[in-house]
């Protein structure tokens, strides 16, 4: 019986690890780190990253970009955001996973 209870506790901890981790080590406030409010985590070869860059340039949006394959700082920030793919966009502290022009327009009030 004790082994079963220990197993259940381990299973629950494993399933909720990100929530537990963020409780004790909350993600950084990216809006304070980048006053312009727009950060792109990308790679050089990603087509959706290229489309995101073009979206920002077409709309004259200033942004900071980190290539997560070449920037240790960018990779560390991406990991703190629990990045699960690319691109990851942070706009005024809101995280967008993937290329989502409608959500970017909404957050940028375009």
CATH superfamily: Glutaredoxin
For the CA atoms, what is the radius of gyration? 17 Å
Structural class by secondary-structure content: alpha+beta
N to C succession of SSEs: HHHEHEHEEH
In CATH terms, what is the fold-level topology? Answer: Glutaredoxin
**C-alpha termini separation:** 59 Å
Q: Can you summarize the main beta sheet?
A: 4 strands, mixed
Task: Kindly report the average pLDDT value.
Answer: 84
Percent in strands: 15-25%
Percentage of helical residues?
A: 40-55%
Total count of strands: 4
Order of the strands making up the biggest sheet: 2-1-3-4
Brief rundown of the structure:
The protein is α+β, with helices and mostly antiparallel strands and 110 residues long.
Keywords, separated by commas or semicolons:
110 residues, alpha+beta, Glutaredoxin, 4-stranded mixed β-sheet, 6 helices, 50% helix, 15% strand, elongated
